[in-house]
Design a protein that fits this description.
single chain; 221 residues; mainly alpha; Alpha-lytic protease prodomain-like; 7 helices
């Protein structure tokens, strides 16, 4: 099961690396900030996937509270960066009235990306539940948000091309940013819970070692 989870993460990293290169290139050709911003977000998602790979690597137990807490904090940072990038870009485009340019190839690629990301998110969530891996579960949510962002960006570009609804893309980006910010907070809170659990385990082990055993009491007698 760990191998399956790692294969999914490696696949996500590979896809997002290619996605960042392709969408930024398409965005530069079409002068589309929507596509360039989407490609930039993919870099953040590569980082989040790398964190989960580190957490799932053989030889490191998923039940280690300190390791799990560290993974949650790193994923929380990735979510926070994602939310910040989308929030700044969305507000800037709404205030400036910036209209995304038409990019048929970009729309087609985003449609494929949405299907791939939703499929990966479902698979990751299923395996995360079986492994009881909360970092993998959180990263599955980021993959789901990637699919949602793909859909939002594609819809925004399509609506602008068909009806000149330029505001659809930045408005959808702000919704995704709000969801990412919530995930950042929840991951940070879960990291606090794991650190508390580690302190309780350490305190219990210290108390057990300090308590005199029956053999020790017999020797004292």
């Amino acid at each position: 099961m760990h191998r399956t989870a790692l294969r999914l993460e490696y696949g996500t990293i590979g896809w997002n690396v290619g996605e960042a290169f392709l969408t930024i290139t398409l965005g530069a050709v079409a002068s589309s900030l929507a596509l360039i911003g989407f490609g930039t977000v993919s870099v953040v998602e590569v980082f989040a996937s790398a964190v989960v790979v580190w957490h799932l690597m053989p030889g490191h137990g998923a039940a280690d509270p300190a390791r799990t807490a560290r993974a949650h904090r790193l994923v929380a940072v990735a979510f926070a960066v994602l939310a910040s990038v989308l929030m700044v870009a969305g507000v800037r485009d709404l205030v400036a009235g910036r209209r995304p340019d038409e990019s048929p190839w970009g729309i087609a690629y985003l449609a494929v990306t949405a299907l791939v990301m939703f499929g990966l998110a479902i698979s990751k969530r299923r395996i995360a539940n079986r492994l009881d891996s909360s970092p993998l579960r959180s990263e599955a949510t980021m993959t789901l948000l990637d699919g949602a962002l793909s859909t939002a960006t594609m819809t925004g570009l399509a609506l602008n091309a068909a009806f000149e609804w330029w505001w659809a893309d930045p408005a959808a980006a702000l919704l995704v940013a709000a969801a990412a910010a919530r995930e950042a907070w929840e991951n940070w809170f879960e990291a606090d819970e794991n650190e508390t659990s580690e302190l309780e385990i350490t305190a219990g082990a210290t108390a057990d070692s300090a308590w005199p055993t029956e053999e020790h009491m017999e020797r004292e007698a």
